[in-house]
Design brief:
By secondary structure, this protein is an alpha/beta fold. The chain is built from eleven helices and five strands; from the N terminus they run ααβαβαβαββαααααα.
Length: about 300
């Protein structure tokens, strides 16, 4: 390591993610059922890895939610599978939580083309990671999550270094222990799933653990921001038939309204589930409900409780 970055071409065989798994040494001799059983056995390590990082994940949720409340943004940065997972999680936030597409963004080495075609050679350019941070005008209000299974990806290291220099909150998410690859970041998340069934193929356990961690991080942040009521996605974007049906079911489940009445209420609210619920429970009109929600940063429960006082 040099200044927190990995030297291209340096030996990586000692990394946990590159080691051979003793449980799969006869992988090419297994029957299909034996293969499935082995994968199932090894994938159990993923949940253990998430549990082992629970405190760091909780800290990441707290720091990120605080940053977004202050007008910051959340960026995921990665290459290959790690980058694709970050882009996927970011892309799911607008339909699930009705967030602005700019609020949570995925940055992948190679750009959009790398989502469908391998461009792993581009991960070796730390300067490109730094340039991506500069291009998005990252500031001290923002949070940058560097995702790299093996911890050594220069593109991610370059992005994190640039983010630190700009004062952003930095989070590192890797599947190797800190003694193998250190990281100078605010929150260091290690998802230690052990060697892969297919040696070095980090799209397997490492990818699964990363997907789970990102699910927890983004959903946890949105819960903290008041975009969930109970366990319902009350900020769901009603943009297609499936989501319209979900919106109606949420309203019906949380109120005594029929589906027809819920549909009428949803339209009156401008197809905003959270606003529709507040209008129904408080008997306020759309404008008054909107103002009340704004006073409580969009938190439905806080808005309702405020009227009870």
């Amino acid at each position: 390591m040099t200044n927190g970055q990995w030297t291209v071409g340096q030996e990586r065989g000692h990394l946990l993610t590159e080691q051979a798994n003793p449980n799969s040494q006869n992988l090419d001799q297994l029957s299909p059922l034996e293969l499935v059983d082995l994968f199932n056995q090894e994938d159990a390590r993923v949940l253990e890895a998430i549990a082992g990082a629970r405190l760091e994940l909780a800290a990441a949720i707290t720091r990120t939610a605080a940053a977004l409340r202050q007008g910051g943004r959340l960026f995921y940065v990665g290459a290959g599978t790690s980058g694709r997972l970050g882009v996927l999680d970011a892309a799911e936030c607008p339909p699930t939580f009705c967030t602005d597409p700019e609020l949570v963004q995925g940055i992948i080495a190679g750009g959009a083309g790398a989502l469908i075609r391998s461009s792993e050679d581009l991960e070796d350019r730390a300067e490109d990671g730094s340039a991506a941070i500069a291009h998005r005008h990252v500031t001290e209000l923002d949070v940058v999550v560097g995702i790299t299974a093996g911890g050594t990806t220069p593109y991610v290291q370059g992005a994190l270094q640039a983010a630190r220099q700009r004062g952003a909150t930095t989070i590192f998410m890797a599947c190797v222990p800190a003694e193998q690859v250190s990281a100078q970041v605010d929150i260091d998340i290690r998802l230690l799933v052990g060697p892969e069934v297919l040696a070095g193929s980090t799209r397997l356990k490492a990818g699964t653990a990363t997907k789970l961690a990102l699910n927890i991080l983004s959903t946890g942040v949105m819960v903290q921001l008041g975009k969930v009521y109970g366990n319902r996605m009350v900020d769901v974007a009603v943009t297609n038939t499936k989501l319209h049906d979900r919106a109606l079911r949420i309203i019906c489940d949380l109120t005594d309204l029929s589906r027809e009445e819920a549909g009428y209420l949803l339209e009156r609210s401008g197809r905003r589930v959270k606003l529709a619920l507040l209008m129904h429970w408080t008997k306020l009109d759309q404008q008054e409900s909107d103002q009340l929600l704004a006073q409580h940063q969009g938190n439905l429960r806080e808005a309702i409780n405020a009227l009870k006082k």
